Amino acid sequence: MADSSDLTRLTIAEARDALRKGDLSARTLAEAHIAAIEAANGALNAFVLPTPEKALAMADAADERLAKARRGRGKGRAKAVDGALGALEGIPIAVKDLFATRAVRTTACSHILDGFVPPYESTVTQNLWDAGAVLLGKLNNDEFAMGSSNETSHFGPVVNPWRREGSDEALVPGGSSGGSAAAVAARLCPGAMATDTGGSIRQPAAFTGTVGLKPTYGRCSRWGIVAFASSLDQAGPIARTVRDAAILLGAMAGHDPKDTTSADVPVPDYEAELGRGIEGLKVGVPKEYRAPGMSAEIEALWRRGIAWLEEAGAEVREVSLPHTRYALPAYYIVAPAEASSNLARYDGVRYGLRVPGSDIVSMYENTRAEGFGAEVKRRVLIGTYVLSAGYYDAYYLKAQRVRTLIKRDFDAAFERVDVLLTPTTPGPAFGIGEKVGDPIAMYLNDIFTVTVNMAGLPGLSVPAGLSGDGLPLGLQLIGKPFDEATVLRAGQVLETAAGPLPEPEAWWTGSPPKGAAGRKRASGRRKSPARGKGARGAKASPKRKASP
Amino acid sequence: MQVDEALVRHIAHLARLRITDEEARALRGELSAILDWVAQLEEVDTDGVEPMTRVVEMRMKMREDEVTDGGYPDDIVRNAPMREDHFFVVPKVVE
Lengths: 548, 95
Prior knowledge:
The complex is a heterodimer of chains A (about 550) and B (about 100).
Chain A: H1 4-7, H2 12-21, H3 26-44, E1 47-50, H4 52-74, H5 78-84, E2 92-96, H6 123-130, E3 134-139, H7 178-185, E4 191-196, H8 202-208, E5 211-214, E6 234-239, H9 242-252, H10 270-273, E7 282-286, H11 296-311, E8 315-319, H12 327-342, H13 360-371, H14 374-387, H15 392-416, E9 419-423, H16 439-443, H17 450-454, E10 459-466, E11 472-479, H18 484-498, H19 533-540
Parallel strand pairs in A: 2-3, 2-4, 7-8, 7-9
Antiparallel strand pairs in A: 1-3, 4-6, 5-6, 5-10, 9-11, 10-11
Helix pairs in contact in A: 3-4, 4-5, 7-8, 9-18, 12-14, 12-15
Chain B: H1 5-14, H2 21-38, H3 73-77, E1 83-84, E2 87-88
Antiparallel strand pairs in B: 1-2
Helix pairs in contact in B: 1-2
């Protein structure tokens, strides 16, 4: 394993096993990723703050623990010693800039949190470090996680490692966890922390050919995560395989007395639950998701997914979620309302930016005017309006009643089935700047994912194929509350049936600094063309069955 | 729902956001479009439906009412844009 590009290809499971055997050191693994970040970040802008020195120090500490464990194993105390090692001992991880990290700048990619260095650590990231993980740095995201393209970040957009075949147009990686998804797809880290309020883990995962899991509301603590919409926000992992997502969730999850909405329920061994197959699993296909105007490509992908699950022994049946179409408009009342309340704390007094004014109110107004970007302002204003006197019942309470109906739809469906299968997004990644001028067109990206947050359910996006122009597409599995294990198990069946996606050609290495990312380059063939679209289509077609 | 510029300014003041004339004009159209779009919820019959308060049924945990954290004022004021000792400094608010 001398070549560092081989090391960045390792999955978390593979790296963990190599580290434990002593075939690989955590320092070498960290160095390979640090070099990859240095070479790529000018072009991709996935990291807003790489932390190479911290990574090496944490890696050295992990190496000491690993060496101690190996010495103990030599003395025949294998079990006790392995048990003392964390699940992520020596694994390098990058973290969305929404998670507070002690002594490491955390800004939510907003100008208003300029220079904020938290004196505390979020519970989820603390759980990772307790499990032995190594921090590679902080990742770009839409400002306060408000966006579906990573274009609202104060640090500028992230560029998707994937490009359309034969084109060098810069595409969005999706959002709001665009940096997390792009970094994992470009092999700058094997796994990343992300958050999902309306689709912010699953949509970017679909756009970058990665695996993204939004756990059940309450599965992971929200303590120390910059709040956007408190009744919808949930932390989850982005990784390159379903197994890695399972390993990461196991390390992140758990009850936290510091978050009253975190659930005090046992965390299963998600990795051990994989590979049990899905014989007899009941899979629902919600008919309302077959929206008019769904592209033939997405429809075909969905059918292929249904066929794959059937072949693995699942029973597929149609279900109805009649209030699906109202989820997105209800979300765009509930989320901005909660955001306007959560973002009231940014007032120039206790942290971040302050812009002087003639009195305290004008200081607040000037600070918030300069500190917030256009999309954040838009949502704060919508939220303030729907919560204002005289409108609260008509908008906010109405939306929360609709939300009850959406949840009831899912409850009824889950009496008949164990898991639901849908597309993750209405289409593949789009161009940077393409949807910036039209907020509603941008919001429609989340049409298949937002229902899941409204009902607090777990949702997983798995890469399932390529679009006609060579971009990744994802399928989404939705589970019962706290049944991530079934979602992951079914997700692995889809992953295996779909086969690995070809890797995007590494056009970003050694690129000149930011700004030159979009310039003309000779477009080359993707690596491993034999594993490309043609092979996939051929592999999938004999399996294809009629849709239910 | 048509929002006029006066309403945009009123909401912006409630939200403690200074907005320029140009922003007010742009926001008038954007907010109107978003509010028109969410108005489709009026179609849904929600009579007798409880508003959702939490997505997952769980009982709120009780704990002893005691101090479990604190005692680090340096950390609390460390990120303040203006501070004096362990105080946040703001423009004068009383005459």
